[in-house]
Amino acid sequence: MESSGSALPSAASSSFTTFVLPIAALTVAIYSFYRLLVYPLYLSPLSRIPNAHWSSAISPLWILYVRYTDNENDALLDAHQKLGPVVRLGPSDLSINSIDHVKTVYGGGFERTDWYSMFDNYGVPCMFSTVPSKEHALRKRMISNVYSKSFMQSSPAARRQARAILLGRLLPLLTASTAADQDPQGLEVASLFMATSMDFISAYIYGLRCGTDFLRNAAYREHWLQLYLNRHGASFYLQEVPSITRLMRAVLRTSPYPQWVDWATQELSEWNTALYNKAMAFLGNVKMDGNSTGTFNRGHFAESPEDEPVVLQSLLTNLERETATHGTDSLLYATAIKQPELAVQSELFDHILAGQETTGLGLTSLAWKLSLHQNAQDALREELLQLKKQTQQGGDDTEFFPTAKELDALPVLQAVIMETLRLDAPIETPQPRQIPPSGCRIGPYEVPGGVRIASQAHTLHRDESVFPQADEWHYARWLPLSSPTDDDNDDNDDAPRRAQARQFWAFSSGGRMCIGSNFAIQEMKEVAAMIYSRFQTHVVDDSGMEPDEGPVSEQLYLRFAPLT
Ligand code: HEM
């Protein structure tokens, strides 16, 4: 009896090891084989889409490696040129390169992904990092008016700020560089244009008095730019492998990127808080706790419109209105109304970062292209000098400062900027969105919900069917057909021009399109007009302008020759 009692469990355990375990292992193996190979390769609705790499259907490793090595633009261009407008990058990751598909995704309000959460500042979201569409739209409405073209063109603050920055700060630096005793190597303009953009955007947000003076404070600006560059080291880990990053932090108490990235973020955040505090103090200690002094009166700034903190005021006023109207029921209650000071700082910090790097890069590319293409520079100068003559602002050169509306009517100025932003878009990398849960149709393909999908200016702007000789900087492609300076336009068909305008995607499109596009274009026009009505520029050294998908590290040395 004793022996039979002990034999039973051992028979059970032997049948477990003989039958159950192998069957379980086989089931797992078959299921894994099906899930990881058969389904993604042959049965998934995505399996009909061409793969950018042989492994794309079954593994994200190839595209992760491409992103890690900052080669995404080239890899996507190559894939789309070979495989068409829809390609599969990873098992659940698509790239599109057709303006019709772009309309479906970006015009259709497909939501952003957590990829954007690294753009939270101070631990709270801003408009850029907000995922839900309704919350995003509410945030956008609070500030979109002050960035609209009509508002900006007639804003006394914007005009006086631009004048003070360009005539009071940038022009003296350029003029000094032309003195006979100056080093013939020329001026490094990438850093100078980043400084110009920073001074522009911080003045519009916080007022000229409380904004930056990076143009004249070269030492601090170089330090700031270094901190900013340091942050790029973390993007891959935070955006592409966030769960591994979180796991490493939680379990190993370490981070995949160096600690100085966090220190740089901390210092930059404190720097922005200091600007905010200064502007708030200037505004007269407006309280954010519901006992505020009410809406702001532009009359305060009648004497010195340049000191008006335009964006800050708009945000404070509208956030206050939302608090008063909806209070705890507001969609923004948890993320903004409960912590208004941090929410405002987070939003404005994002505008500062978004506005300085992009426009600075755009201006650097513009000056580079105009220095390489002296014929375009001459055409632009002729247009500007003509305007100067018409507006009779002659006499003292330093005072020529056309209005934003006057500049907006200049076709060559518009064309050189469009062509520069086409070929050298400051943000040309993919802008990921997710397919909604119900799925959608992209061209001939049914795509299930949850799939990551993105397009990018880099490939859209190199589509030869829309932009012939797409790799060439050819500003005349943007000139109106009737323009006397456009020799190439003998045909009267403007359909190709409409197609170009439709496919221009430097600022994205749809509800999440860049809010600062008018600001950036107006600034670029003002800077270009100031420079090219006074100087001729020549390249001294552009070896630092090699195509670079990595962190912003461009360098460009130009010589400024005063017009005689
Ligand atoms: C030439 C200059 C600029 C370029 C090329 C540019 C480009 C872009 C692009 C492509 C996006 C969409 C990004 C995405 O969805 O992933 C974007 C969004 C944004 N940009 Fe710009 N930008 C420029 C200047 C500015 C300026 C001056 C500001 C200052 C306010 C700004 C503020 C923003 C903000 C706040 C967003 C987020 C919009 C939203 O979420 O609805 N940008 N920009």
UniProtKB/TrEMBL annotation:
Keywords: Heme, Iron, Membrane, Metal-binding, Monooxygenase, Oxidoreductase, Transmembrane, Transmembrane helix. It comes from the Eukaryota. InterPro entries: Cyt_P450 (IPR001128), Cyt_P450_CS (IPR017972), Cyt_P450_E_grp-IV (IPR002403), Cyt_P450_sf (IPR036396), Cytochrome_P450_monoxygenase (IPR050121). One of its GO terms (molecular function) is heme binding. Gene3D superfamilies: Cytochrome P450 (1.10.630.10). The chain crosses the membrane at residues 12-34. Heme binds at C514. The keyword Transmembrane applies. Its cofactor is heme. PROSITE patterns: CYTOCHROME_P450 (PS00086). PANTHER family: CYTOCHROME P450, CYTOCHROME P450 12A4, MITOCHONDRIAL-RELATED. Belongs to the cytochrome P450 family. This is Cytochrome p450. It comes from Ophiostoma piceae (strain UAMH 11346).
